[in-house]
Amino acid sequence: MKHIVQTIDFQEYLSSAELPGQDRELLETARAATLTSYAPYSHYHVGAAVRLTGGQIVTGSNQENISFPAGLCAERVALFAAVSQFPGIAIEAIAISARADNFDVTEPVPPCGMCRQAIAEYEMKFNKGIRIILGGETGKALVIDNMEQLLPLMFREKGLVKP
Ligand code: THU
Question: How far is it, in rounded angstroms, from Cα 23 to Cα 17?
Answer without folding.
Answer: 10
